């Protein structure tokens, strides 16, 4: 009775159930109606099912769109069908240097995004760790955060001209002030218990911050970075429409001038595809990095 | 003097208008003593523990360890928390290692040995490489116990550490805890709501009143049972009687308003 190991039946089944998921070998699975399987409230449906459903749904939307144009329900001049957009996209790759423009846009987005992140992460952390820093920064941040970026385009051109600086500045402006608050919030949400565990085992404040608090906020931080990368694209198009001779915004705006709807669409689709791919990659990275969640 | 090891000297604690520890709370704990706090929920036990840990400061008065006023946490006082007690991004072994991360006096080999020893003791050796999200509530609690023991603090502050454990595991760990306390001469303050557990573990039981925490009674269990504890003791007449006495005190103190 003294030794818990002497009574295996008391603890073994419960412990074992955690490690092994399978029950007895290969019994025929219980039949679950199809609808119940895929529409169980908050229940997982499996990764493969998710991917399949995502692809099938997209194909259905594209097919409906294509059919609607073919049958003349929608005017192809304003809403060219997917097949047409795809062909245009292909042509633009060779004739209009689409890859170059895409590269320029991606570089601008990432440049400004990294600049925002590098500045917002330490500042956001400081704001939440020291209430006086937070109190000092919050009014300013909140004020700028609500300014619409397009309204600042004229000022930005006066300050920086029409070169790369203006674009980077506008993108930075649109993301930095949002991100800083998100970072501060992520840090604030780290349970106080984690901080206290670290302190009671002898960590100095700087160690508490880097070994525990930062580590604890990391999953949320990566998520918020992913979201602000998306905002960057919104502001990029504004910046490139106003003052640029390269980039996807420029391509779209030029095509509009000649009423090349399918080229406009092709530009938009390119942005969408980049967004889809980078978002999925970042999600994958998130899953890989934070397996413990 | 031995009796001056840990001293609550005339302390009070208020959170705003809320008085949590009654004015002038005095208690003296000897080195190597096992103290159990017993009292109604919300009376201020956790608050007292946090102040010993240095995570909170008394509104008035001071808590001293070996004559030194406690102002901030350090390695000499380890704590097992009631909630969020392990880091989700570390494996079970990693969590236990964390307890020794800032101990510069131990070699890596020694640390690994201690880790394995305590993992084994709390029955988590098979789950060393598992992440806490795959474990039950009671198993997570055991991670925290192993981490705190591995850290090797002189004073262990344990806030309902066995609350979510099954009876078997609980008995096993109670015995181990008494053993560790005797072998490594630890001083332990332990919070529980379980009167039987209190009587079995304690050298001294401090029974609290309702909030604001005040000492209703102090039961000197060591005077009856000495330092040695065995499971047979639990079935004895004396144990039964003492348990009932304490139970009566708890009922009475929970009812009194002063
Ligand atoms: N940080 C805080 N701010 C304000 N009030 C607090 C704070 N911490 C605790 N309290 C209050 O102090 C009182 C005592 O809380 P404490 O956690 O010490 O109780 P406890 O004795 O540990 O209870 P339990 O047995 O349920 O764990 C409660 O009424 C609680 O609401
Ligand atoms: Mg408590």
Can you tell me about this structure?
The complex is a heterodimer of chains A (293) and B (258). With 293 residues, chain A is an all-alpha fold. Chain A has twelve helices and no strands. Chain A has a domain of 182 residues: MetI-like fold (Orthogonal Bundle). In chain A, 75% of the residues lie in helices and 0% in strands. In chain A, helix 4 crosses helix 12, helix 5 packs across helix 11 and helix 10 runs antiparallel to helix 12. The N terminus of chain A is likely disordered. Helix content of chain B is 36%, strand content 23%. Chain B contains eight helices and ten strands. In chain B, the strands form two sheets. Chain B has a six-stranded mixed β-sheet, with helices on both faces. Chain B has a four-stranded antiparallel β-sheet with strand order 2-1-4-5, with helices on one face. Chains A and B meet through helix 1, helix 9 and helix 10 of A and strand 6, helix 4 and helix 5 of B.
Helicity level of chain A, as a percent range?
A: over 70%
Describe the global form of chain A: flat
The Cα radius of gyration of chain A reads 26 Å
Net shape of chain B: globular
**Small-molecule binders:** adenosine-5'-triphosphate, magnesium ion
CATH class of the domain at 108-289 in chain A: Mainly Alpha
Low-confidence stretches of chain B: none
Order of helices and strands of chain B: EEEHEEEHHHEHEHEEHH
The helix count of chain A comes to: 12
- Oligomeric state, counting identical vs distinct chains: heterodimer
Number of helices of chain B: 8
Q: How large is the radius of gyration of chain B?
A: 18 Å
Category from helices, strands and their pairing of chain A:
mainly alpha
Strand fraction of chain B: 15-25%
Summed over residues and divided by their number, the pLDDT of chain A gives a mean of 87
Order of helices and strands of chain A: HHHHHHHHHHHH
Q: What is the share of helical residues of chain B?
A: 25-40%
Q: How large is the share of residues in beta strands of chain A?
A: under 5%
The chain-level structural class of chain B is alpha/beta
Biggest β-sheet: strands ordered side by side in the sheet of chain B: 6-7-8-3-9-10
Annotated CATH homologous superfamily of the domain at 108-289 in chain A: MetI-like
